[in-house]
Amino acid sequence: xxxxxxxxxxxxxxxxxxxxxxxxxxxxxxxxxxxxxxxxxxxxxxxxxxxxxxxxxxxxxxxxxxxxxxxxxxxxxxxxxxxxxxxxxxxxxxxxxxxxxxxxxxxxxxxxxxxxxxxxxx
Length: 122
What we know:
Helix content: under 10%
Strand content: over 45%
Order of helices and strands: EEEEEEEEEEE
Radius of gyration: 13 Å
Number of strands: 11
Distance between the termini: 40 Å
Structural class: mainly beta
Oligomer: single chain
């Protein structure tokens, strides 16, 4: 079992920044990747970014490339998502998730946090 707990969401004006964190606990040694996904009201959950736990290899959705940065602190079992130049269309519930292999596919992630709301006002 792996437990994930997000923090750092909130309300910000367009152009502003937020930093999300995800603390992992439990059997984290078997995890290869951490991902961030988001779900806007009335829409499907979508991929945002992912990082391999040991090498730090990253991948981003085109919609956030150049604005968001994913990172991890393997020693502290913590992942982060730095979000800059936020836009109203970034408004969503953001989830961190854990997978046994590096992937951008939602179905490949088997442990999920409870989500944190990010609201960007125009």
